Amino acid sequence: MVFILNTPLFFPLKSLLLCYNAWDWVYTMQPAYMSIICLLGVIGNSFVLSVFCLQKRRSSVADIYLSNLAAADLLMVSCLPFWVATIINKFHWRFGEPMCQLINIVIGMNYYCSVLFLTLVSVDRYLALTRPLTQGRERRAFWARWICFSIWIAGVLLSFPAILFRSVQFFPHLGIDACYLAYPHEGWRLRYNMTVSIVGFLIPVPIVSFCSYHITKVLQSSQKMRKGSSGSVERKAAYLVLVVLAVFVLCWLPYQILIFLDTLDHYEVVFGCTWAHVLDIGNQLATYLGYSNSSLNPFLYVIVGKHFKKVSAIYRRTKHHRRGSDVTTYQRSVVSTYINRTEHIKPVVIFYAKDQM
Fold it and tell me: Residue 279 pLDDT > 90, yes or no?
């Protein structure tokens, strides 16, 4: 992320003052926006994780992916208060160098993990719907846990520059100690930007789009064969698939565009004070718009579900030691499709109550 600290010192004073004035609204509005993201994300993802912990039945593959997605999102939004305080203090970092590195490696790690877990959820739904008779091994919980573990390790490795190159530096012209990412060589910036774009967007988006298209196609086909409430439920499930994809793209596409523009700035295709600050402010807006996806995920996958009230009731009943069968009854969704194999109609669970509209 590029901040005002990168501003050259040789621009005319009048131009610099105009550029710096553009940051006043950032110091005012951005902390409030980030605080809302943090609050909603902590509440929503904590609720999702608590529901998974309180359920009595054995976790399915979808449960494992969704719980890891919620954990990644919760960790990410939990780090935002540190940046809220920093922006209020005009990027003066008060928490020491170890926290500077830790907070940013957690944010970087969970950026990758959140995107990849979301991709896994889409792939799992696609396989469960389109290939229900070939999921004996692929959908086993054992392999799902190992896949999730591998993604967490990959997230740590991909965010390693936060440990190597993040440090607290004093900037005399601003009079602040800033948590600053200083690359030892400019080639690192290009490699980092390419990694963020490829791993965090260019690979996941086509996969999620492919899965969403085929899920929607099968659900719509099944809807034509069915009438009444069942067809209506499948139509809503198809809408949910498209909404999840649209929200993901809308949240992260601006950030990817700014990554590309930052690369152009790196090669000095465009330069100047105005451009530098447009890029800096754009990075601020795009970055935290992307983080808002971590606050929206639990609402998209769980809280907007048709059986949210039932899940909430289960959550409350657990404090009164209700039977585990109550949990199991409501955990399975009513969404199913007809698969004609060996002249038998086999119902296939696609969505759980946690993610069904």
Answer: no
